[in-house]
Amino acid sequence: MDIVMDADALNEFLSSEFPQVAAEYRVERVDRSRLMVRLKVGEAHLRPGGTVSGPSIFALADLAVYCAILARIGPVALAVTTNASIDFMRKPEAGKDLIAECRVLKLGRVLAVAEALIYSKGGAEPVARCSMTYSIPPKR
């Protein structure tokens, strides 16, 4: 699959279309096989006990899949999640950002399927695994 939006273009797109969350995320790498996004973990992402909340982990996975798809189809703001499944496998490491490694498994005309593995920065084992399907709106 060819890349039509690199990391800089994706970060610029997030800043313009989703300024409410863009400062929390950074697309760090895009290539033909995968995309990497960082969640800059802060107080707003923590739950009691000092761990990153499930909704924050899910949001990272969703944003990573969205960006991985846009990297291949271009800036289509209205592509939306139609199905998602997430497995929380272990507690994220305290005080560390989270990294999503995402790959697109199938890219069709109207549906895309991708998966994301979420890691604590520098960690060897994933803290979560997510599978998602996105609906791609028809071209005008």
TrEMBL record:
Keywords assigned: Hydrolase
Domain of life: Bacteria
All copies of domain Thioesterase, residue ranges: 49-125
CDD domains recorded: PaaI_thioesterase
Family of this protein: Belongs to the thioesterase PaaI family.
Record-linked Pfam families: 4HBT
Protein known as: PaaI family thioesterase
GO molecular function, one term: fatty acyl-CoA hydrolase activity
InterPro entries per record: ACOT13, HotDog_dom_sf, PAAI_dom, Thioestr_dom
PANTHER family according to UniProt: ACYL-COENZYME A THIOESTERASE 13 (PTHR21660:SF1), THIOESTERASE SUPERFAMILY MEMBER-RELATED (PTHR21660)
